[in-house]
Amino acid sequence: MKYIQRNTQETKINASLNIYGEGRGKIDTKIGFFDHMLESFSKHSLMDFEITCEGDRHIDNHHSVEDCGIVLGQLLKEEIYPIINIERFGNAAVVMDEACVECDIDVCNRAFLVFDMSNYGDFKGKVGDFDIELTEEFFRALCLNAGLCTHIYLKRGKNLHHIIEATFKAFALSLKRALYLNKNIQIPSTKGVL
Fold first, then answer.
1. Strand locations in 39-162, DSSP E?
2. What class has domain 2-178?
3. pLDDT in tens, the chain (194 residues)
4. 45-56 as b/e: b if 16+ CB within 10 A
5. What's the pTM value of the predicted model, to 2 decimals?
6. N or C terminus: which one in the chain shows less Cβ crowding within 10 Å?
7. Cα separation, 118 vs 120, whole angstroms
């Protein structure tokens, strides 16, 4: 289990992570819908993590959401690299009623994010107290700090709650599959290092 504490003038975050856990999450960011999404991420990735965040929510939720992504990305990077005995690539498409979101991940220590919700149109609005455009900010912060090349694509959907929840679940399943332990794979690269 890895631990991290990150204090800035905008947020104070304490977090821990075990990537090969049982899917137990203890989340308190003071943003209800975001907490629900992180609990879903923990559950479906089978990662155990705790995160508490005190942020400048009197301004908005941006700093809290982005900084939680930074911290989780840093924890993932500590746990994952150097890469050995993992599948490396993972993908999943998750349906939630009318919504379907696909996520493809390469655990390669080369950070990149494609986040395409254009099938929805103008990806703005709120679910509860959560600004939906912060979904992309969270995944960008996480992927850049973890060294993950990630493509997230909305195949179809109308209900914002369903779309965002399918996004978190697809990411969780894709990451779980990419990190699946395989003793037959020493280093999953022709370079010999990642």
1. 48-55, 89-96, 99-107, 112-116, 126-127, 130-131, 148-156
2. alpha beta
3. 899 999 999 999 999 999 999 999 999 999 999 999 999 999 999 999 999 999 999 889 999 999 999 999 999 999 999 999 999 999 999 999 999 999 999 999 999 999 999 999 889 899 999 999 999 999 999 999 999 999 999 999 999 999 999 999 999 999 999 999 999 998 877 777 77
4. bbbbbbbebebe
5. 0.96
6. N
7. 5
- Is the N-terminal amide bond of 82 cis, ω within 30° of 0? yes
Where are the domains positioned within the chain?
2-178
CA distance 162 to 24: 22
- 176 Cβ contact partners less than 8 Å away, ≥ 6 residues apart: 44, 45, 46, 47, 90
Q: Which two tokens stand for residue 84?
A: 């050995």
Amino acid at 40: S
